[in-house]
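From the pipeline queue, job 12 of 40. The input is one protein chain; the requested action is below.

Action: predict structure.
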Amino acid sequence: MTAPSPPRATHPPRPGRVAVLGAGIAGITAADALAKEGIPAVLLEAEAKIGGLCRTESVHGYLCDIGGHRFFTKIPEVQQLWLELMGPDMLVRERLSRIYYRGLFFDYPLRAGNALRNLGLRESARCVASYARARLRPRGDEQSFEAWVSNRFGDRLFDIFFRTYTEKVWGVPTHEISADWAAQRIRDMELATVLRRALLGLAGRGRQVGPDAERSLVERFHYPSHGPGMLCERQLARACAGGASLHTGHRVVRLEHDGRRVLQAVAATADGERSFEADAFLSSIPIHQLVQAMHPAPPSAVLEAAQSLRYRSFLVVFLALDRPDLFPDNWIYVHEPGTSLGRIQNFGNWSPHMVPKPGHSALGLEYFCTQGDELWSMEDSELIALGQRELEATGLSRGARVLHGAVFRAPMAYPLYTTGYQHQVTVLRDWLGRLENLQPMGRYGMFKYNNADHSVLTALLAVRNLLGGEHDVWAVNTDEDYLESDES
């Protein structure tokens, strides 16, 4: 009698149809990857436009990037994908940015001479003393952003270069922000460290290189000639040519499931509800909305975890001006405590194709806010007037006349890492993990402060999982040492 054969490894059957929820860069990448495999995808997008945060708006021919997107990655297949899509339309740009603080402009990354001149010898000495105290008597608890940064750079440097801007971005005190965000975004070459080394006479001249270079210090990056929306539109066109279909104005309001599998997605449209059946579902919509759309509803503890997650929104005040070369930076961080303005994008320095007329400039003034607050609720005309006033206060407008103004809003743009958020995400992840044909992906879908390349990678891995792969999509962008340096 022969011994029984060992059981064969089982893999999920190849899906015949996949529903992709959300047509941002992750959703579009997933649809494109599925098309390459001959699998038709249906893309359901709540908004009228595709691209999410990676979209490009047009105002009388002037182009506006919602957020400013550098296309830099350490992930070879993502880099290859972008270059394959864009070809010669993917420009290589020089990076230049500064910090505006107390009426002065600091080089970013900081240089010793510039920093010392701006701060003055007395303030520089205070920063050194504060740094020494932090190293000798660090705070014991590093759960918050404030404690994590202050322990490494001192309270004085924290107050000058971290507190004001961080609280503008997130809208909460820095002691309420999780240290996870600091550990993910701030490495040894962050601006405070560069200043510290400058003050101690340890900073060398020229660019910083090597495996410890912080991602913000990269001096060159790729950028689509007509903005990131160009890349999304080109990739979507390729996906649709391969069998994908796009449905804009389709907001997913219900996901029918049997406790093991999702059976169909129901979307609200201008003409009523529509149902979409599929063999698998990939979701890049906000994870709390995904959970709240489940029918039957999850347990109350899961719903409470979903409701506890918080996001930060922002809006862009776009201004076209009748003067060129207002300043050489791609963008400027506004740390000035007395202003609401957070960051200024100079789109002509991202790509000359963003400004249709020579002798003009196109700026994006970014204001961080929360849906429903005073800034978010202001009329567009009021916001444009506010932007003009605050731009003039920096001296950067140089007397230029505003030709056109517009406002673009980005709701729930940033997942807010308040202390304890990890537990809430774990609760949602564990419950969603019971549905074998559903995978979250992207920034919104996973409540992770992903860069564009991370979102693209999660989409590629999610598609591979549908084809029998075993990739941990949640492991993407968990490495605190993610750097933009090619040397690692």
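Job complete. The domain at 310-415 is CATH 3.90.660.20 (Polyamine Oxidase; Chain A, domain 2).
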